Amino acid sequence: MTNTIRICHLYGNLLNTYGDNGNLLMIQYYAREKGYQVETTMVSLEDPFNADDFDIIFFGGGQDFEQKIIAKDCQRLIPEIKRYIEQNGVLLAICGGFQLLGQYYTTADGEQIKGLGVLPHYTERQINSRFIGDIEIYDEINQQTYYGFENHNGVTYLTDALEPLGKVITGYGNNNQDKTEGMHYKNTFGSYFHGPLLVRNEWLARHLVDLAIEQKNK
Ligand code: GLN
Questions:
Q1: Choice among 7-21, 26-40, 170-184 with the minimum mean pLDDT
Q2: Best of 10, 63, 127, 194 for a ligand 1 pocket test (most atoms within 8 Å of beta carbon)
Q3: Separation of 152 CA from ligand 1 center, angstroms?
Q4: How far is the CA of 119 from the centre of ligand 1 (A)?
Q5: Which residues are annotated as a binding site for substrate?
Q6: pLDDT digit string (tens) for 40-52?
Q7: What are the respective helix, strand and coil percentages of the chain, to the nearest 5?
Q8: What average pLDDT does range 1-18 have in this prediction?
Q9: Could you confirm whether the keyword Transit peptide appears in this record (predicted)?
Q10: Long-range contact set of residues 73-82: C-beta below 8 Å, sequence gap at least 24
Q11: SS3 category, 116
Q12: 40 in ligand 1 pocket by Cβ < 6 Å?
């Protein structure tokens, strides 16, 4: 399987709104361009999951109803996802998936649901309001500008342990207060960007595939 990039689409049948599946298409496209075959596996409610079976995990965005269902099921994945992240596995989490990697997520109606808790960020809510609109951020580590569209009720705080994916130039970002957008820790990336993120930001798509290839061949 060394010439195959194995992609895990985490809860892909539940978190599949906002065209985020375009991120998967981009990963598949660049992996093939690099000469790899691609195998995509959906891991959803009650499915077995072994982190060693994957080179990239994609965790998409969705609505509160689905997030509540997933929050219950995903607790069983905590040790494997934690191990995967800590050993530099490549993971991309968008919006709802990004929120669920953290400590907790507060739904628009005020219910606090437990996240996987594998990273320290946490998400509060806004009352009768959403952050909606075009967004532009600058990734200082990689010196790249990213463009996207955000649509979220959640208000996320990173804590000092996490780097943002980028600094907000225009738009709201994680919380409309500290100019952070998304998150970056080892080879794990989180973002509120739809658009989808990787379709509008080709450099990042290639970067994730390169990281996955590097991890695979180390
Ligand atoms: N339901 C979450 C929120 O509104 C996530 C939305 C999304 O994934 N776009 O914050």
A1: 7-21
A2: 63
A3: 5
A4: 18
A5: 130
A6: 999 999 999 999 9
A7: 30, 30, 40
A8: 91
A9: no
A10: 73/11, 73/45, 73/46, 74/11, 74/100, 74/116, 75/114, 75/116, 77/49, 77/116, 78/116, 78/117, 78/118, 80/49, 80/50, 80/51, 81/51, 81/57, 81/116, 81/118, 82/116, 82/118
A11: coil
A12: no
Please name every residue paired with 58 in a beta bridge, in sequence order, or none if there are none: 9, 92
Look at residues 154, 44, 146 and name the one whose alpha carbon lies nearest to residue 96. 154
Check if 8 is active-site: no
pLDDT above 60 for 86: yes
pLDDT at position 196 is: 95
Instruction: Report whether residue 113 contacts ligand 1, using a CB cutoff of 6 Å.
Output: no
Residue nearest to atom 5 of ligand 1 (CA): 96
Mapped onto helix, strand or coil, the DSSP state of residue 64 is helix
Q: Is 64 in the pocket of ligand 1 (CB under 6 A)?
A: yes
Token pair for residue 134? Answer: 């075009």
Distance from C-alpha of 130 to C-alpha of 128, rounded to nearest angstrom? 7
Looking at residue 108, its pLDDT comes to 94
All structural domains of the chain, each given as residue ranges with its CATH number in brackets, are 4-217 (3.40.50.880)
Residue 14 in contact with residue 62, Cβ under 8 Å?
Answer: yes
